[in-house]
Amino acid sequence: MKTLEIPTFECETGNYHTFCPISCVAWLYQKIEDSSFLVVGTKTRGYFLQNALGVTIFAEPRYAMAEPEEGDISAQLNDQKELERICLRIKSDRNPSVIIWIGTCTTEIVKMDLEGIAPKLEKQIGVPIVVARANGLDHAFTQGEDTVLAAMTHRCPECNPRITHQQEEDVAENVVADVDRSNKFFGEKGKLNRCNSVLFGSLPSSVASQLNLESKRQSVPVSGWLPSQKYNELPALGESVYVCGVNPFLSRTATTSMRRRKCQLVGAPFPIGPDGTRAWIEKICSVFDVKPDGLEERENQIWKILSDYLEVVTGKSVFFMGDNLLEISMARFLIRCGMVVYEIGIPYMDRRYQAAELLLLQHTCKKMKKPMPRIVEKPDNYSQVQRMHELQPDLAITGMAHANPLEARDIDTKWSVEFTFAQIHGFVNARDALELVTRPLRRRSDSSLGCRSLSKQTVDI
């Protein structure tokens, strides 16, 4: 019996070529509908956010900038007074349920005590203030979300594993048709435990609903999401709560949930691709002693739907340069689709948090009879370009800074940031993920077909 091939980890000393983590505002302000974000930083950060949020030009983003001037940096002004003035203006204009301060590199350099100021202002203005430092000390721009969610973990209410008899009857009337009263969600003495499973990660509401539905089909209802759409609907956390992440860049949130709130982490692969989604649900089911029902048929059904895309990618090769920390999950999915992954560049990886994903990667390579790709942390981009020149991959998934130079070297590219903003989680959205991957491949194929048809036409003439 062939054993699993162990992945090879390497570490180079390259610079981080990623977005600034404050870009998380671009999707978090849409997810937390009653929030307002205050980014504390220089005008450069403001210009960056304006560009990052350019797609929302017809909407009015709920964020503001607190821009330090010379007086702030030289400590001639009172930070608390200035932030109080801005927060009062936000309260007057927006009346948010929560204000989230995003600290930048500037606040680190001038040693601004945001954590000390926030509790005082919170009492004065009567609005909760959550502090998250999303600065250049992070490895990837997606970790900005991780910082915000880790900070919000402290604001979640404490889970009480018991509810009153009257509450039990009210809840049971709503869920008795969907949940078997004999399963583990009913604890001792028939009391319904409503705090069992919490998912963390910011996904569009439609995608979150799809994952909720998939869990509900297995009689594993989700009791809440972090973040929630409304601040006052944050899920309860505590010792009786199992938490599970949907993105591989949320290791800080997972650690905070376990250490500070005493939650139990479900170490599962991430629900990206039909294979990852099935493995994710199966792991959650195993934690709650629920036997999965129909998952294999569900996965096979999705693979049949993807057959037209699979014809395009089968046998093609891909090279990940590293940008958003989704690389391991995306590589595993593409290998399952029939592609060869030469290298997985990744800015940083928490191997404990991604242990289940790495194991699934090994099983996928064995199942598909593909070589195990190299995993390079903190890759040196110059060395990567040299390796790509030798390997000549069909596709490179890279940050925007390197796309044009690689295209000039006749290597098709796809911006990795697009996978961050696209809906790629769950069974249904696997098609959207492959649409992004195959677009440059189909463009080259269409171009070559066009050239051939044109040459044939010339000959006929």
From TrEMBL:
Top-rank EC class of the record's enzyme: oxidoreductase
One GO cellular component term, please give it: chloroplast
Q: Name the major location.
A: plastid
- SUPFAM superfamilies hit by this protein: Helical backbone' metal receptor
Pfam families named in the record: Oxidored_nitro (PF00148)
InterPro entries to which the protein is assigned, alphabetical = LIPOR_BchN/ChlN, Nase/OxRdtase_comp1, Protochl_reductN
What processes in GO biological process is this protein linked to? light-independent chlorophyll biosynthetic process; photosynthesis, dark reaction
Which EC numbers characterise this protein's activity in its record? 1.3.7.7
Q: Where's the Nitrogenase/oxidoreductase component domain? A: 20-412
Q: Which NCBIfam families match?
A: DPOR_bchN (TIGR01279), PRK02842.1 (NF002768)
- Role summary: Component of the dark-operative protochlorophyllide reductase (DPOR) that uses Mg-ATP and reduced ferredoxin to reduce ring D of protochlorophyllide (Pchlide) to form chlorophyllide a (Chlide). This reaction is light-independent. The NB-protein (ChlN-ChlB) is the catalytic component of the complex.
Name recorded for this polypeptide: Light-independent protochlorophyllide reductase subunit N
Organism the protein comes from: Dryopteris crassirhizoma
